[in-house]
Amino acid sequence: MKALILSYLRSDPKAARVVPATGYTAHLTLFAAGAMAFLAVFALALSLAAGRLADRWAGELARSTTLRISAPADQMTTQVDRALAVLQQTPGVATARALSLEEQAALLSPWFGAGVDLSGLPVPRLIEIRETETGYDAAGLRLRLAAEVPGAILDDHGRWRRPLVEAADSLRRLGFFSMALIFGALAAMVTLAANAALAANAQIIEVLRLIGATDVYIARAFVRRFTLRGLGGAAVGTVLGIGGVMLLPEASAEGGLLTGLGFRGIGWFLPAIIPVLAATVAFGATSFAARQTLKELA
Amino acid sequence: MIEFDKVAYSYGGGELLSDISVRLAPGSFHFLTGPSGAGKTTLLKLCHGDLSPTAGHVRAFDMDLTALGRDDMAMMRRRFGVVNQDCRFLDHLSVAENVSLPLTVAGHDASQMSGDLKELLEWVGLTDRAGALPPELSGGERQRAALARAVIMSPDVILADEPTGNVDWEMSQRLLHLLVELNRMGKMVLIASHDLQLIRAAKSQVQARVLRIAGRKLQLAGADL
Ligand SMILES: Nc1ncnc2c1ncn2[C@@H]1O[C@H](COP(=O)(O)OP(=O)(O)OP(=O)(O)O)[C@@H](O)[C@H]1O
Ligand SMILES: [Mg+2]
Questions:
Q1: C-beta of B214 in contact with ligand 1 (< 6 A)
Q2: Helix (H) or strand (E) holding A253
Q3: Which of A41, A146, A148, B34 is buried deepest, with most CB atoms within 10 A?
Q4: Average pLDDT of the residues of chain A
């Protein structure tokens, strides 16, 4: 496909001159490609930002639950074991692991300084719970724990993020769907413009046929033009779109999606595929339109 | 070289041409006459596949034109030089570019053939108008440009529909002479024309036969012409 496009673009520009330049369909195509590329940049930025957010929140969600067990020192081990056994039988719990004393000490070090020795202190033991995608039923788990492990407190303060993760995932899908729609709309517009150009040049096509031009030769003049217009218009639209994204406020930790709309690192080069995609779409749409029209004019 | 085998044609109403069988040999020179509306233009269009017969077969270069695919048809057209009655051009290209368009389309480097182009434009008297656009030409100039375009590829068959309809006697002699010269080089020539003077002039230069469409049939016209 790419080689085919390149061969069309490289083909004799004199051959392309057999079709007169049509000022106004040309400008419409350029504008449509530019506008669609501009929108596509935002759709892409939205998808990527939503994706990052979903990943981050999902990560936090996975690490969001701890089970705290406070028990007299002699019952501690049995209660921890029993809690682990309960957790292992609970649907929706991926893993459950008791933190070692060293790990707990590391968690407390901001408050007590490094090297604190917890072995003599009555600190509660912590069990880290990782959820599966579907998650567990917190109310049910609490009931079982209350019955079997009296010293256990389920701390699931992070779980409120679950619907947000789902929302961010939907937003990401919506962004990609929008991109597909944008390119679909571009294909439709280019097809219409190409059809208009072909119809307007029916006489020229007739003359070219008379002197022995093949369909490929005739189509090439149109395809070349619309592909270049798609590429050019989309390049301008993409640059403007990236400019627009750059003008958005800086990402901040709290702002979430609103301020996180942008690209990261080499992600800034990702919109470069938009003009290429637009050119491919224009190429395909014009080839299709030309093939249809030339068949009908035969 | 061009063969009609029981060809009939109708534009949808009654048959305009029916049961026409004729063979035009390579290197022959023919005139096609008949009253206006008899179907001369139609017959020429059948010759180069612009129209397909409603019955029968048209063969050119031993190939059935109706059976050809579109690409093969395009290649076939390059062996025909056609002057249509309405002489259409690409109006945004100059006369010189239009005349050399068959070369461009066939992938030849037109700039390498600029000598031929100049000579041809000179012959049809369009050297001064080479840079003009087709809409700026007179009717006769258009016909001359169309003839030049038809012969630039040195095609095997030249089909001309009233090529001298709009030019003065002197110019029509000049154009005829060009066609006669091409015929001497072995090209087949078929000219639709009402112009009896032109036909007589041609007959004095080459062995030309006259075909006449009358009553939907094609006949060989008498020696009185
Ligand atoms: N596209 C068409 N659709 C319907 N009828 C047509 C069409 N073209 C030509 N005709 C009719 O067919 C008949 C023959 O037309 P044609 O052009 O072949 O005649 P002709 O012999 O070339 O006439 P002239 O000497 O005036 O050029 C005419 O009656 C014409 O009206
Ligand atoms: Mg006619």
A1: no
A2: none
A3: A41
A4: 84
Nearest to B129 by CA among B101, B108, B99, B152: B99
What's the CATH code of the domain at B116?
A: 3.40.50.300
Distance in Å from the first CA to the final CA of chain B: 25
pTM of the entire structure? 0.76
Burial of A145 (0-12, 13-18, 19+ CB in 10 A): buried
Q: Residue holding tokens 């419409």?
A: A28
Partner-chain contact B74 A20, CB within 8 Å: no
Choosing from B41, B54, B217 the residue with most ligand 1 atoms within 8 A of its CB, the one to mutate for a pocket test is B41
Is B164 among the domain residues? yes
**B84 touches A: beta carbon within 8 Å:** yes
CA atoms within 13 A on the CB side of A129: 31
Ligand whose nearest atom lies closest to the CA of B33: 1
- The number of folded domains in chain B is 1
Minimal CA separation from B153 to chain A, in Å: 10
Pair B225, B200: CB distance under 8 Å: yes
Chain B residue with minimum CA distance to A296 = B70
In a domain, B32, yes or no: yes
Going from the Cα of B37 to the center of ligand 1, the distance in angstroms, rounded, reads 5
ipTM: 0.90
| Per-position pLDDT tens, chain B of length 225 | 899 999 999 999 889 999 999 999 999 999 999 999 999 999 999 999 999 999 999 999 999 998 898 899 999 999 999 999 888 999 999 999 999 999 989 888 767 778 889 999 998 899 999 999 999 999 889 999 999 999 999 999 999 999 988 888 988 998 899 899 999 999 999 999 988 899 999 999 999 999 999 888 888 876 544
Residue A222 phi/psi, 5° resolution?
A: -75, -45
For B153, the domain range is 25-52+71-209+220-224
Choose the closest CB to A215 out of B70, B88, B105.
Answer: B70
Whether B57 maps to a domain, the answer reads no
